[in-house]
Specification:
The structure holds two protein chains of two kinds.
Chain A: H1 6-24, E1 28-31, H2 36-49, E2 58-61, H3 68-81, E3 85-88, H4 91-95, H5 104-123, E4 127-129, E5 146-149, E6 177-180, H6 188-198, E7 209-216, E8 219-222, E9 237-243, E10 253-256, H7 262-271, H8 289-295
Parallel strand pairs in A: 1-2, 1-4, 2-3, 4-6
Antiparallel strand pairs in A: 5-6, 7-8, 7-9, 8-10, 9-10
Helix pairs in contact in A: 1-2, 6-7
Chain B: E1 4-11, H1 17-27, H2 33-45, H3 62-67, E2 74-79, E3 84-89, H4 97-104, E4 109-115, H5 122-133, E5 138-144, H6 153-166, E6 174-179, H7 203-209, E7 222-224, E8 227-232, E9 235-241, E10 246-248, E11 252-256, E12 260-269, E13 272-274, E14 276-278, E15 282-287, E16 298-300, E17 306-317, E18 328-333, E19 336-349, E20 356-357, E21 367-380, H8 387-390, E22 391-396, E23 402-411, H9 419-422, H10 427-434, E24 440-444, H11 451-464, E25 469-473, H12 474-481, H13 489-508, E26 512-516, H14 522-532, E27 536-541, H15 545-551, H16 556-561, E28 583-585, H17 592-607
Helix pairs in contact in B: 11-17, 13-14
The chains are: A alpha/beta, B alpha/beta.
The structure holds guanosine-5'-triphosphate and magnesium ion.
């Protein structure tokens, strides 16, 4: 009998969790954010049920400010894999032209948190998979794999259900729901190594390439379309950059890099001196901002 | 590939667990620059007068920072040159014992901290006992805050001996005592000059080399079925994780609890077709013939696994409300989830002395041994032999909270099963087992008022909330039990009397009964109320005659008007309106859903 590798163990754990949800939860959905973690989660879902297709739909919460390449990638993958991809946006927010330049943190609340809650309510989903990892941030490090949410989708960190062994308690009352994090125990490094091992397709933005950017507060922000607003002193530069995380382009910082292969990315990740969070504008606001958002129903 | 060690820190509140792990990560250069900077900034605001407060690396919740304690487990992942680690930093506060147990359930090794100025105290012992219950076989005693006792060897030895005495009865594979200072960093990543008398390794180097004997307890193949996959009519695969042993194509396996034998036709490890698979792998197995297997069943080659409906177990009670003998809980064992009842408490454990105390009451954070009866025979094993089929959780059926966790000691076989028979089975016991208050919901109203439709909807709703119900209406009563009765006055009175008696029997069985009959006479309804007793709830569907007649779903009003039916309530026979119904609703202007919502809301009040 051969010992399983660390990646094999992580894969087995994630697949176990995904199958438990399919077996026990009434109306699950897998949230798909197009990033590397979502790509891994999608890959795990395909493997978990093979030769069957995943017995649940996927949902992307689209703020309409994602990188163009992300949207192309999403539509292409959904097509190739033959899975159901629901795209949901906060229509009201769009009508009011809520955007990342003028509305700051209200933008995230309205276009992400509110949109997510509306999307889940609209389809009556009782469980939603998310690609959160515990090594990403301190409040995530505290969250259960099966994270209970009340009728308002809120997380109560002081009163989490105990979670022992592989005995997940999926019981909820009407209106309540579960967020489920099958890759809780993966680190950024594990994600990259698994992507390499399994040859998982990811958005090209993760690889270094010359791109039009502006330098803003220690990050390179990409000028992805004409909606990008420049500060008076900013100018558009062509830089060889890549992205460690993907989100709304005006809120995502790229890093200068020459890594064009997975091996090079892994090498950079191992040697990185800062965490991947530094490239996400949202988490740097204040201590506890992630926890506050999660309490309000964010991932 | 480096081996992986999963460990926890535990011990009483403020003994320095979070500080210890924080300092270890910091010293071993396992932090990113921005995390280090944030830590230094946060510490400036903290209580340690600007000195680095390493616990802030772990205590990530706002409430934790405010109160300076850990509330829930924090997980950290790190790798050194020798090993990969997952550490769960658990809370010491007694209130959050359940969260410590969450950490312990996953750990190979536990670092139990003791404050050197306080020594081994009750909460230290509680955590040590929980580790033992959860099968943690490797312990490190970290005697912390050595700086506060001048690195006194005598004091260290005294604490170490107290601890060794405490764990004497546990079955362990390794124990090591290390004197440390979490704030100052002594003996954490490096040997300290302050403890020349200590000849063992510092903590992190010890964790890098300690041998965790992943002893294979069980070699026979075993897989609890998570789900059955049927993408098309030619493929029927059983999905799950292999918990022990090896399986190969062609092997003959047994299905439990149905005890059928079948040969393995094909094996998929995730999406790869293979000839054999082993413990830990997620698989999809096809058998060469049809068998009676669904989620919760087990595929195995082991002949010694129990299929029974009663076992003895050790539990940790975690719910705010007390354990109630006889109350019904959902139990999750393996991949099976079914109703269960704690039928007897053998004893609870005195945390301080380890003595067994006889009791009939278990409260939050107590450890106990008890017998649990299951609603049907299922597959399980002792935790010692087989971890995956030997652990379980109990779920409160009303609040859905995880009320307890536990490990199975052994099956209690039928002939020994006397406890169950001894209790007098009364109406209360039966109701308790179903976790509900028996009621008779007596729907009355004109033909066409909406009684039956509503009774039906209300029943569905109650059922979806987990209540146990029974609906009596014209269909199932008039055609069976009351087939012999006519529609004259005597027949009608006797009809109602029998229905009331049956409703009462159903209540005695613990059920919520819904009856849906016109029952037009006040006197008959009072009679029914007398028979049923205080469980009787009268629901008057007060839709007016004009509306009912307009609806005339069955065309009965028309016939009655044409005098084709005699004594038709509302037309040729009176309907006496209830004078004081518990619930009243007129369905003329509201939707079925609204009416159901309203009645269910009122009924839930009565059930509370
Ligand atoms: N002098 C001294 N103080 C220490 C030492 N270790 C921890 N402390 C202090 O003890 C207090 C509690 O430390 P924590 O690390 O929060 O304790 P904990 O065990 O994690 O507490 P809970 O998680 O709430 O149970 C803090 O004020 C620490 O600075 C030590 O080695 N020496
Ligand atoms: Mg702590």
């Amino acid at each position: 009998m051969k010992e399983l590798t660390h990646l094999d163990q992580l894969e087995a754990e994630a697949i176990y969790i995904i199958r438990e949800v399919a077996a026990e939860c009434e109306n699950p959905v897998m949230l798909y954010s197009i990033g590397k973690d979502s790509s891994v989660m999608l890959h795990l879902a395909m493997k978990a049920f093979y030769p069957e297709k995943p017995p649940f739909p996927f949902m992307h919460i689209d703020t309409t400010w994602k990188f163009k390449e992300m949207i192309e990638f999403r539509d292409r993958r959904a097509n190739e894999l033959g899975i159901e991809m629901i795209v949901h946006s906060n229509e009201e927010g769009l009508e009011q032209n809520i955007n990342p330049f003028d509305h700051g943190s209200a933008y995230t609340d309205i276009m992400k948190t509110q949109a997510l809650k509306d999307g889940l309510n609209k389809y009556g989903f009782t469980a939603a998979f998310g690609g959160g990892r515990r090594d990403e941030e301190k409040s995530r490090a505290k969250e259960r794999i099966f994270s209970f949410r009340n009728k308002n989708h809120a997380w109560d960190p002081k009163n989490q259900r105990p979670e022992m062994w592989k005995q997940f308690n999926t019981k909820i009352h009407k209106g309540e729901s579960m967020r489920v994090f099958p890759i809780s125990n993966w680190t950024e490094k594990d994600i990259w190594q698994y992507i390499r091992r399994e040859n998982i397709d990811i958005v090209p933005l993760y690889f270094a390439k010359e791109r039009p950017v502006v330098y803003r507060e220690g990050n390179y922000v990409m000028v992805d379309d004409e909606r990008m607003r420049l500060e008076p002193n900013e100018e558009i530069l062509m830089k060889e950059v890549r992205f460690r995380t993907l989100g709304c382009y005006p809120l995502t910082g790229g890093v200068e890099s020459k890594a064009v292969t997975l091996d090079e990315i892994i090498e950079e990740t191992l040697g990185a001196v800062t965490s991947e969070r530094t490239t996400r504008v949202i988490d740097q606001e204040a201590v506890g901002s992630m926890e506050r958002r999660k309490r309000e129903g964010y991932f | 590939m480096r081996s992986l060690l999963r460990f926890i820190t535990c011990g009483s509140v403020d003994d320095g667990k979070s500080t210890l792990i924080g300092h270890m990560l910091y010293d071993a250069k396992l932090l990113f620059a921005d995390q280090e900077k944030a830590l230094e900034l946060d510490s400036k605001l903290g209580s340690r007068g600007g000195e680095i407060d390493y616990s802030l690396l772990l205590d990530g919740l706002l409430a934790e920072r405010e109160q300076g304690i850990t509330i829930d487990v924090a997980y950290r992942y790190f790798t050194t040159d020798h090993r990969s680690f997952i550490v769960a930093d658990t809370p010491g506060h007694e209130e959050y014992t359940r969260n410590m147990a969450v950490g312990a359930s996953f750990a190979d090794l536990a670092i139990i901290l003791v404050d050197a100025t306080k020594g081994v105290i009750t909460q230290t012992k509680r955590h040590a006992r929980i580790c033992a219950l959860m099968g943690v076989k490797n312990l490190v005693l970290a005697v912390n805050k050595m700086d506060l006792i001048n690195f006194n060897e005598v004091r260290f030895t005294k604490i170490k001996n107290d601890f060794l005495q405490l764990i004497e009865e546990f079955r362990l594979e390794s124990v090591q005592a290390i004197p440390v200072s979490a704030t100052n960093g002594d003996n954490i990543t490096r040997k300290s000059e302050n403890t020349p008398w200590y000849d063992g390794l510092a903590l992190l180097p010890y964790l890098e080399v300690v041998d965790i004997g992943h002893e294979q307890k069980q070699n026979e193949f075993l897989m609890p079925v998570q789900r059955v996959s049927r993408p098309n009519h030619t493929f029927r695969g059983f999905q799950g994780q292999i918990e022990a042993g090896v399986v190969a194509v062609g092997d003959e396996i047994t299905t439990l609890p149905s005890y059928e034998k079948a040969k393995v036709k094909s094996i998929l490890v995730t999406d790869r077709e293979v000839q054999s698979a082993s413990a830990g792998q997620p698989v999809t197995i096809q058998l060469h013939r049809e068998v009676d297997v669904s989620r919760g069943c087990v595929l195995t080659t082991d002949q010694n696994i129990a299929v029974a409906d009663l076992f003895t177990a050790q539990i940790l009670w975690m719910d705010d409300t007390e354990l109630e003998v006889g109350k019904n809980y959902l139990i999750k064992v393996g991949t099976k989830i079914i109703p269960s009842t704690i039928v007897a408490i053998h004893h609870k454990v005195d945390i301080n002395t380890g003595q067994h105390l006889v009791t009939d009451k278990i409260t939050k954070n107590e450890l106990a041994t008890c017998d649990i009866a299951l609603s049907e025979k299922i597959v399980f094993d002792s935790f010692d032999r087989n971890e995956a089929l030997g652990n379980f959780i109990l779920i409160d059926r009303i609040t859905n909270m995880t009320a307890a966790c536990g490990v199975i000691k052994e099956a209690v076989l039928d002939e020994k099963n006397v406890i169950w028979q001894q209790t007098d089975v009364t109406r209360e016991v039966r109701a308790e087992q179903k976790g509900q208050k028996p009621l008779t919901l007596w729907f009355t109203g004109l033909s066409g008022s909406g009684k039956s439709t509503l009774a039906n909807e209300v029943e569905k709703r109650l059922l979806s909330f987990g209540y146990h119900t029974m609906l009596l209406d014209g269909d199932n009563v008039r055609l069976g039990l009351n087939k012999d009765l006519g529609f004259d006055e005597i027949g009608r009175i006797e009809n109602i009397r029998r229905i009331a008696e049956v409703a009462k029997l159903m209540n005695d069985a613990g059920l919520i009964t819904l009856t849906s009959f016109i029952s037009p006479f006040e006197q008959e309804r009072r009679k029914a109320q007398q028979i049923v007793g205080e469980s009787y709830i009268e629901i008057y569907i007060s839709t007016p005659l004009e509306v009912c007649e307009k609806r005339d779903v069955k065309g009965l009003y028309q016939k009655a008007r044409a005098q084709e039916i005699a004594d038709f309530t509302g037309i040729s026979s009176p309907y006496e309106k209830p004078t004081n119904p518990h619930i009243e609703i007129d369905t003329s202007n509201i939707s079925l859903e609204e009416a159901t919502d309203y009645i269910v809301k009122e009924v839930l009040k009565a059930l509370a």
